[in-house]
Structure formats: C-alpha cells, structure tokens
C-alpha cells in the first residue's frame, strides 16, 4: 500500500527540516547524540503535532491517562 510509510516519511521530513539540514556533525556519534536529543527533548515533549490536536505527544498521553 502506498500509505504504509506515511507516518515515518512525515517524521523523517520533520527531522531533516528541523535538525539535519541546519547542522554539521563532527562524526556519527555526534549525529546520533543530536538526533536522540531532538527526539527525546523536543519532538516528544515540546513539538506540537496537528494529528494530536496541536499537543505534544507527552501532553497527549498525560491527557489520555487522566480520562482513563
């Protein structure tokens, strides 16, 4: 199916636009660390996602816990 990878394609597009294209990494370890930091500190905790009602994944999960 053509939409199987839509979520990952969207994530990688965001990663490239918001981090990769603006950085020069000394080596792979530096790139790994920056990507980890992007995902854990920004993408999952601060970045607003339209598919989650313009909430971060962390806020969306907290909201779901309260309603259950």
Walkthrough of the structure:
- There is one protein chain.
- This protein is mainly alpha-helical and 68 residues long.
- The chain has one domain (6-67).
- The chain is 59% helix and 0% strand.
- The longest helix has 16 residues, at 28-43.
- It is globular, with a radius of gyration of 14 Å.
CA-based gyration radius: 14 Å
Helix content class: 55-70%
Number of strands: 0
Low-confidence stretches: none
The major β-sheet equals: none
Write the layout of secondary structure elements.
Elements: H1 6-18, H2 28-43, H3 57-67
List keywords for this structure.
68 residues; mainly alpha
Summarize the structure.
By secondary structure, this protein is mostly helical.
């Amino acid at each position: 199916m053509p939409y199987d990878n839509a979520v990952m394609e969207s994530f990688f597009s965001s990663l490239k636009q918001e981090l990769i294209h603006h950085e020069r990494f000394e080596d792979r370890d530096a790139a790994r660390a920056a990507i980890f930091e992007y995902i854990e500190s920004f993408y999952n905790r601060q970045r607003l996602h339209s598919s989650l009602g313009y909430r971060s994944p962390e806020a969306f999960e907290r909201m779901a816990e309260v309603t259950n």
